[in-house]
């Protein structure tokens, strides 16, 4: 009986104790599966304390620390293999950096289908870490910019009558010297054009100081610096516009109102948007800035349509000039379903073509092809003209954005350009540029001649904030001497520039 009772007692203990032990070993249903560990909580507390301490630091100290931190950050960081696509359109076909842009070429609009998020540069990082940092983040307004300077060694020289010995090479007009090209500051807000449930807005106000203001100047807006005084350093505001995003028109519409960089072209006036340090002839002598209302509508996955109305090219709304008139813009972008090709074409500037300040009628197209993640190519061509051009200043047209032609009458020009890029490292690529331009009556360069230009350049990002771009280029004019102040047909130049972002 005692033995039987002993076994019975053991069995009862097992029935009571085992479930208790099992319950202790089992997951606690009252705890969430993603409950933070003590180490994670400790790490979050340390970050919060560091952030609170940072808020009390002087702004200049925060700015200095942000610069030091980002100077040690690689320009290109590959995304995680399982990272989701943050946009409702296919991932960007190109990595930016090192390339200037990640998406297929389109101007006059943000990318419809993209959330419009920009990682902060040091100035913005220091502001975010300051007393009102959370308010800045919520506003999505950012303040950032860059400094760009260059130098060139050329076979051409300045003369007693002209400093512009490298011309028609621009922007580095003056041979064998260093130049302060751009100090640029952006104040902007990017609309979220990934979402489709509400109207969003954005804006950009840009300021530029340096040599390159000469190539963004609009007649009647800060233009006396160039047109009356021929200053080699000046101030301009090449972009001042408001963006409105309307999601329920086809796959989204962007409406841009204000002063914009002209929509076409592989290149742009702003240094970080270029593939090389110098500019092609094709880019150097076409339309620059326009003022008006410009719409961009994403029709479907392949087609985007742009239509706009402006007051002409490079002429302020209030400036009296024959070229200041109602002017239309129509551009189309097609992208291949396999994301290997894009064609961007249209009529960028059309009115009656009357002779005026830069009143160039421009038909333009660009085809871009991606071979693989390391090699792609872009080819652009345009045809431009003005009617009844005069070979000298007149009372109605005292200035020209390019040059006065060598003879009166119809003034046409055409050009074709190719860029081919080879990525040789995560933060480095090589560009090869070849082009042909025929300035038939000299209305853009002042010389009625054909040109070819060939260049090879390297773009290297040592880190997130610095870009270095050395290049070697050879220019040739065929019919008359155009280089070295109109005394030589050939010009060889080594050009390099440095961009420092802040």
Tell me about this structure.
The chain is an alpha+beta fold and 502 residues long. It has a single domain (122-501), classed as Porin. Helix content is 15%, strand content 37%. It has seven helices and 17 strands. A 16-stranded antiparallel barrel has the order 1-2-3-5-6-7-8-9-10-11-12-13-14-15-16-17. Helix 3 packs across helix 4. The longest helix has 24 residues, at 2-25. The radius of gyration is 29 Å and the shape is globular.
**Tally of DSSP helical segments:** 7
Classify the oligomer.
single chain
Report the strand count.
17
In angstroms, what separates the terminal alpha carbons? 90 Å
**What integer value in Å does the Rg equal?**
29 Å
In CATH, the architecture is Beta Barrel
CATH superfamily: Porin
Mean pLDDT score: 92
Shape: globular
- Report the order of strands and helices: HHHHHEEEHEEEHEEEEEEEEEEE
> What percentage of amino acids are in beta strands?
35-45%
Helix content: 10-25%
Topology:
Layout: H1 2-25, H2 38-55, H3 59-71, H4 122-128, H5 133-139, E1 141-154, E2 177-189, E3 200-210, H6 224-227, E4 234-236, E5 240-246, E6 253-261, H7 281-284, E7 289-298, E8 303-313, E9 327-335, E10 341-350, E11 361-370, E12 375-389, E13 409-425, E14 428-439, E15 449-460, E16 466-477, E17 490-501
Antiparallel strand pairs: 1-2, 1-17, 2-3, 3-4, 3-5, 5-6, 6-7, 7-8, 8-9, 9-10, 10-11, 11-12, 12-13, 13-14, 14-15, 15-16, 16-17
């Amino acid at each position: 009986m005692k033995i039987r009772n002993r076994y019975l007692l053991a069995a009862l203990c097992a029935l009571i104790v085992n479930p208790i032990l099992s319950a202790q070993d089992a997951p606690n249903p009252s705890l969430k599966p993603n409950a933070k560990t003590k180490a994670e909580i400790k790490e979050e507390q340390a970050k919060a304390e560091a952030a609170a301490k940072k808020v009390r630091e002087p702004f200049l100290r925060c700015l200095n620390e942000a610069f030091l931190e980002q100077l040690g950050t690689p320009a290109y960081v590959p995304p995680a293999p399982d990272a989701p696509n943050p946009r409702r359109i296919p991932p960007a076909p190109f990595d930016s950096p090192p390339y200037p842009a990640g998406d297929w070429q389109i101007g006059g609009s943000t990318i419809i289908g993209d959330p419009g998020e920009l990682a902060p540069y040091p100035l913005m990082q220091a502001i975010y870490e300051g007393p009102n940092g959370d308010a800045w983040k919520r506003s999505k307004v950012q303040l950032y910019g860059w400094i760009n300077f260059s130098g060139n060694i050329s076979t051409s020289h300045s003369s007693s009558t002209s400093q512009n010995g490298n011309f028609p090479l621009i922007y580095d007009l003056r041979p064998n010297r260093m130049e302060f090209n751009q100090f640029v500051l952006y104040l902007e807000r990017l609309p979220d054009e990934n979402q489709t449930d509400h109207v969003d807005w954005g804006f950009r106000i840009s300021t530029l100081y340096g040599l390159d203001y000469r190539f963004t100047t609009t007649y009647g807006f800060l233009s006396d610096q160039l047109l009356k005084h021929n200053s080699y350093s000046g101030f301009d505001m090449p972009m001042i516009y408001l963006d409105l995003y309307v999601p329920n028109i086809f796959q989204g519409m962007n409406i841009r109102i204000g002063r914009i960089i002209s929509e076409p072209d592989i290149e742009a006036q702003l240094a970080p948007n270029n593939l090389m340090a110098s500019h092609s002839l094709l880019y150097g002598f076409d339309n620059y800035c326009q003022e008006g209302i410009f719409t961009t509508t994403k029709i479907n996955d392949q087609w985007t349509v742009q239509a706009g109305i402006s007051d002409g090219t490079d002429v302020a709304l209030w400036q009296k000039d024959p070229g200041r008139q109602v002017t239309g813009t129509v551009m189309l972008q097609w992208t291949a379903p396999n994301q290997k090709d894009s064609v961007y074409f249209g009529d960028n500037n059309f009115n009656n073509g009357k002779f005026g300040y830069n009143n160039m009628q421009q038909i333009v197209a660009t085809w871009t092809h991606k071979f693989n993640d390391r090699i792609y190519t872009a080819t652009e061509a345009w045809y431009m003209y003005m009617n009844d051009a005069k070979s000298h200043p007149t009372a109605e047209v005292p200035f020209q954005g390019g040059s006065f032609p060598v003879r009166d009458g119809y003034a046409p020009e055409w050009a074709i350009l190719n860029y081919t890029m080879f990525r040789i490292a995560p933060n480095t690529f090589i560009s090869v540029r070849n082009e042909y331009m025929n300035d038939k009556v000299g209305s853009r360069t002042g010389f009625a001649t054909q040109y070819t230009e060939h260049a090879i350049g390297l773009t290297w990002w040592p880190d997130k904030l610095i870009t270095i771009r050395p290049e070697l280029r050879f220019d040739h004019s065929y019919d008359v001497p155009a280089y070295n102040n109109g005394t030589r047909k050939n010009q060889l130049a080594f050009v390099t520039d440095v961009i420092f972002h802040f």
